Amino acid sequence: MNNKIIWIKADEGNWDERKAVITTGMESGVDAIMVDAADVEKVKELGNVKVAAFSSNPVEGAEIVVVGKGGEGDGTKPLPPDYAGSLDITTALRLKDKGLKVAGYVIIRNKDYENFAAEMGSICDYLVTIGTDWQVIPLENLIAGLQKENVMLLSGVQNSEQAKLAFETMEHGTDGVMLDTKDLSTIKKTAEIAETAGVKNLTIQTAVVTRVEAIGMGDRVCVDTCNLMVRGEGMLVGSQANGMFLVHSESEESPYVASRPFRVNAGAVHAYIKVGEKTRYLSELKAGDEVTIVDGDGKQRTGVVGRVKIERRPLILVEADLNGKIIKNILQNAETIKLVTKDKEPIAVTDVKVGDEILVHSEDIGRHFGMKIEETIIEK
Predict the structure, then answer these.
(1) 3-dehydroquinate synthase C-terminal domain: which residues (predicted)?
(2) Hey, which residues does 102 pair with through a beta bridge?
(3) What pLDDT is recorded for position 148?
């Protein structure tokens, strides 16, 4: 999943004010802190975070140099005709030639500045735009005009409502936002919105169980995440890439063990797990990898693997009919491992029987190295 990114603007006010904004941003998991060049070292002392520094020259410690503040981008200097001789464009090109990541910074004061922003966007790695009287229309024009350019577009916003609008503009939305606020709660709220913004629900279908059979011993994979899951959430796992079962998390209490809401006892080592737009083998997951957490409505969010446990356990095969197509999954044969019924209720694999209706996800497309491809692949 391509989650939207957030930069925090922290170049105004005294250091204590800026520090509070920066630390809250870091605690909320923002992607970068945007500051004046003089503050880069101070920010780095606070934690390991990407820094975007306003400057016209390389800045030691900064991953990104932001061009436009104090120049044509923010209106301090007038725009030259047709932008020929633009200092901001010349600076951006010079920094790019040095192999640096560059962000253009433009306040959209009128149509000329919108056109100038598009020009900067064709050069820079990132483009940060701030609207004035008109916000949505210039943003729509830039989203459309820059879609073929290799640039990340960030809209300058001051609250979470504006961030949500930017994320949803023209369906695709901006790649992220540059949040300019001293309100610490706004930073947290915007980070929450960004986590699921632009992520479409998956299509969840109902399949009818046609076979349940204990098949002996094998190696199964437990995926322990750095995230807590709730009732109804789990991961999509299957023996075939085009048919995956919703395997419920161990968020439910049971008489056998305490709940482990961070865990999905996912399936045998050979199985596929859906991760964003791709699939991976369960056996290749490791700490630090991303996984996709899904619920019965198809709502998805990103989780992070904290630990993977592969252990030899008794296994059970579950087959199901999905509109005439037979799909399969192999799971540990134990009461704590659960699928999800059509009523979105967890059901232990030891209780599943022929005729039960369970939730699955299907894609009529092949995969090669986990990526969707248009070719015929038969998996039995």
Answers:
(1) 207-380
(2) 65
(3) 86
| Cα–Cα distance, 171 to 111 (Å, whole number) | 23
Which amino acid belongs to residue 82? D
**pTM for this prediction:** 0.77
In this structure, whether the domain defined by 205-371 belongs to CATH 2.60.40 is answered with no
183/8 Cα distance (integer angstroms): 12
Task: Give the residue-averaged pLDDT of 358-376.
Answer: 63
Q: How far is 305 from 301, CA to CA, in rounded Å?
A: 13
Name which CATH class applies to 5-196.
alpha beta
Q: What is the DSSP string of 205-265?
A: EEEEEEEEEEEEEEEEEEEEESS---TTEEEEEEEETTEEEEEEPB-S--SSS--BTTEEE
HSE value, Cβ hemisphere, 13 Å, CA-based, for 309: 10
The residue length of the chain stands at 380
Query: In the prediction, which pLDDT does 2 show?
Result: 57
Q: Which of 262, 187, 243 is nearest to 31 (CA)?
A: 187
Domains of the chain, by residue range, sit at: 5-196, 205-371
